[in-house]
Design goal:
heterodimer; A: about 110 residues; mainly beta; seven-stranded mixed sheet; 11 strands; about 55% strand; globular; B: about 110 residues; six-stranded mixed sheet; five-stranded antiparallel sheet
Amino acid sequence: DVKVTQSSRYLVKRTGEKVFLECVQDMDHENMFWYRQDPGLGLRLIYFSYDVKMKEKGDIPEGYSVSREKKERFSLILESASTNQTSMYLCASRTGVREQYFGPGTRLTVT
Amino acid sequence: RKEVEQDPGPFNVPEGATVAFNCTYSNSASQSFFWYRQDCRKEPKLLMSVYSSGNEDGRFTAQLNRASQYISLLIRDSKLSDSATYLCVVTGGSSYKLIFGSGTRLLVRP
């Protein structure tokens, strides 16, 4: 069974904290993605990576950075968390334009 | 204008009904099209790809109209378990990027 896992389901952080969200896939996919999902706005792409150590900005990269040191792992970093980064964060992976598999999501609350 | 637009609903239908959703997209260069399903508090999962000739998977039929830039999903004989949000998805200018609509919510009542 294919799997994308995320390090936490729920996370509460304080404003200004550095936050790490981890994502691991076991399908040997080249492409990995980080999205945030907010009511009425749908899924918005933050960053993606098409290979180890490669990264590309998505539509809303401000306030975020990413790291991909190994093929199976893609990390999202909030350098200094702010309340407007309270959201559901979804990691995904895929090969080519085939099915994209999502992790279960991390609901982050920044207070 | 959003790149992918969907009616948010909710569509509230009785069991056994036929229901159809449409989605429009703005990028005429989009090459691949999909419907994803997202249950409440769960991650999206692929429901079906959408092919130019139209395709069917059991009770679900997807159609693509490239000239008018819209995609449709028809669900026949609705089940309670079909209650979910249906996301229309298209590829953007780069094949790496999937553009997700905000979703159409379906509620199937007994």
